[in-house]
Amino acid sequence: MSETATATASGPEVRSGGCLCGRVRFTVTGPVDDPHICACAHCAKRSGAPFQWWLGFPMAGLTWTGAEPTWFDTHPGKTARSFCGACGSHIAARDHGDDTIIGILATALDHHDNDPALVPTNLNRLAEAAPWLAQYDNQPATAG
After folding, report:
1. 129 pLDDT higher than 80
2. In 3-state terms, what secondary structure has residue 134?
3. ∠60-114-92 over CA atoms, to 5°?
4. Helix, strand or coil for residue 132?
5. Nearest CA-CA partner of 17 in 88, 79, 106, 84
6. For residue 25, what are the contacts with CB-CB under 8 A and spacing of at least 6?
7. Starting at the edge strand that comes first in sequence, how are the strands of the sheet with 90-95 ordered?
8. pLDDT digits (tens, 9 = 90+) for 19-67
9. N- to C-terminal Cα distance for the chain?
10. How many angstroms separate the CA atoms of 132 and 69, rounded?
């Protein structure tokens, strides 16, 4: 068990997170589903970065423990994304009609380092990525 998630002897892992200013807070309980990096033009535009690091969690295991985020239909009728209305931090995504999985940005978790369950298993939409990013696909990491 990593130090970044907690579990009771009889229960699943619980992770906490929130926005930069602390207004929006949440916990997610349950296994991580499809940890991945998305390099689509949409995620890049929305985040101001070349990609975003997404984690799926059971929707039933999500609890907002602070203020709830603001939701915006980024793909009307298909996908909504959430953010803190005060500081603007990106938090989550949900697909309309899917009440089983919530997408949480790994960086919204309080502890997203040193947790092997969060390591991305794939890079989605590489064809849409910044052209300089593609050259790093499947390259071994090097020490700085």
Report:
1. no
2. helix
3. 35
4. helix
5. 106
6. 16, 17, 18, 19, 64, 65, 66, 67
7. 70-75, 79-83, 90-95, 101-105, 52-58, 33-38, 122-124
8. 999 999 999 999 999 999 888 877 888 888 888 899 999 999 999 999 9
9. 29
10. 33
- Residue 26 to residue 15: CA distance in whole angstroms: 8
- Output DSSP code: residue 69: P
- Local confidence band at 1 (pLDDT 50, 70, 90 cut-offs): very low
**DSSP string across the chain:** --TTSB--TTS--EEEEE-SSSSBEEEEES--EEEEEE--HHHHHHHTSS-EEEEEEEGGGEEE-SBPPEEEEEETTTEEEEE-TTT--EEEEEETT--SEEEEEGGGBS--SS-GGGS--EEETGGGS-HHHHTTTTPPP---
CB 103 within 8 A of CB 53: no
Q: For 94-112, how does the pLDDT look when each residue is reduced to its tens digit (9 = 90+)?
A: 999 888 999 999 999 999 8
Q: How far apart are CA 113 and CA 4, in angstroms?
A: 8
* Report field, pTM of the whole predicted structure over 0.85: no
Residue 11 has pLDDT above 50, yes or no: no
